[in-house]
Amino acid sequence: MNGIIPTIQLETNLTSMLNASELEKIATQDYRQMSAYLIGQISERDLLDTEEQNIFHIEIQREITVQPLIAKKLVIVLKATRLCNLRCTYCHSWAEGPNQTMSFEIMAIIIHKILSIPNIKRFEFVWHGGEVTLLKPLFFQKLIWLQQKFKKPEHHITNSMQSNVVNISDDWLSFIKGIGMHVGISLDGVPAIHDSRRVDYRGRGTSQRVALGIEKLKRHNIPFGALIVVDKQVYKTDHRKMLDYFIKIGLNNIEFLNIVPDNRIPSGDKIDSSYITYADFISFLTQIFIIWWNEYRTKIVIPQFSDFIHAIKFPGTQLAACYWSENCSQEVITIEPNGNVSPCDKYVGDANSQYGSLLKNDLANLLANSRHNQTARREEQDVFNKMRQCRWFYLCQGGCPHDRVINRRHVVGYQDDCCGTGKLLAVIAEFLDKEQNTVLS
């Protein structure tokens, strides 16, 4: 297939080929499910080349047995490519050279194995890099097609992507629009900060190109949000100036992520000057929350805050972000272009963090035989015992395990009976109480 077939076109090209029961089935699905279903109806001859068809035939006929996971869902951070068009000063996620992009054969094998896990019904695929838009949309159309071919009726599969949107093409915009997908954008605050570290391979800043990419997404009515890495520069920036800049460029959905230091630095050694502790990060979020609550909450959505607010108002609510998942060592994996499995990208460079190849092994066995993973699992269980007395444990579940590891490694006097998020949660609860009292008075 030479061109791209957006799902909007698929509706007219394929629905005439479906019988009444198939039409009834897709009529009850949301748009994203429907678009994925329709991609799955494309003839392999119209989508795959001859070699890929042979690979698919071999894989679809192969009987495999995989073990269940100690998890209720699985988040798959799919490193479709490690190639990137940027050279961010703090990033450990890009690589150069050959074999940095996943082949169709590897993709078919891992999709088959992942969707064969017997006790998992929800699979969340995150398209990640590198920079995924360096690949053609056809790569991901084949990925969705494979998901549809190997999925079971009870499966719920989602796809999302993270991109710098610096050079996002019209073909990509049409494809994203066609499948109804949300785009996560990488952005680092105001231009003066962003352009000092999110640079292209020539060392040029990229804030203007990101703003242009956001304009393109808005023109195509594609939902998007941004992830802002918080280091010492962002921590010290004028918070109102930063939020005003986001509004100026049409960005009204943002989340913050604390910077990850080089995992190879041992305890006691000097850490990069851009690093801030988790306590500093919570202080930053608390300051942002107060400003946002008083001045910006009708202008900008910050899911970290809105999720906490909802969970405080309605105890028992399960927070969506992986940081509060309680079981991320078993529920979140990264798959490299060569099929190797590791924990989330926060652990890049950490000793023994590669679990092994999914091409030759079962995921449950990789996790069970990984010293790194089993240490993480025991650490999670130990933390739950230590932190259960915290007022906010029911919400944060001890926070991100990588943050705890870094705190122990680099923060002098760190106390591991509280993750530290409670200071932010207490402020949020205080503001909610004040609002409630004002309504009642």
Can you offer a commentary on this structure?
The chain is an alpha/beta fold and 441 residues long. The chain is built from 20 helices and 9 strands. A 9-stranded mixed sheet has the order 6-5-4-3-2-1-7-8-9. β3, α8 (170-179) and β4 form a beta-alpha-beta unit. It is globular. The protein starts with 6 loop residues before the first helix and ends with a helix.
**Series of H and E elements:** HHHHHEHEHEHEHHEHHEHHHEEEHHHHH
Reported for the largest beta sheet, the result is: 9 strands, mixed
Question: Main sheet: which strands, in order across?
Answer: 6-5-4-3-2-1-7-8-9
Total count of strands: 9
Query: Roughly how many Å is the radius of gyration?
Result: 22 Å
Distance between the termini: 66 Å
State mean pLDDT (0 to 100 scale): 90
Helix content: 40-55%
The helix-and-strand class reads alpha/beta
What portion of the residues fall into strands of 2 or more residues? 5-15%
Poorly predicted segments: 1-16
Number of helices: 20
User: Per the principal axes of the C-alpha atoms, what is the gross shape?
Assistant: globular
Draw up the topology in text:
Blueprint: H1 7-14, H2 20-27, H3 31-40, H4 44-47, H5 50-61, E1 73-79, H6 104-114, E2 122-128, H7 137-150, E3 156-163, H8 170-179, E4 183-187, H9 191-197, H10 207-219, E5 224-230, H11 232-236, H12 239-248, E6 254-258, H13 278-296, H14 303-313, H15 328-331, E7 332-335, E8 340-342, E9 356-357, H16 363-368, H17 371-387, H18 393-396, H19 401-410, H20 422-440
Parallel strand pairs: 1-2, 1-7, 2-3, 3-4, 4-5, 5-6
Antiparallel strand pairs: 7-8, 8-9
Helix pairs in contact: 1-3, 3-7, 5-6, 6-7, 13-20, 14-20
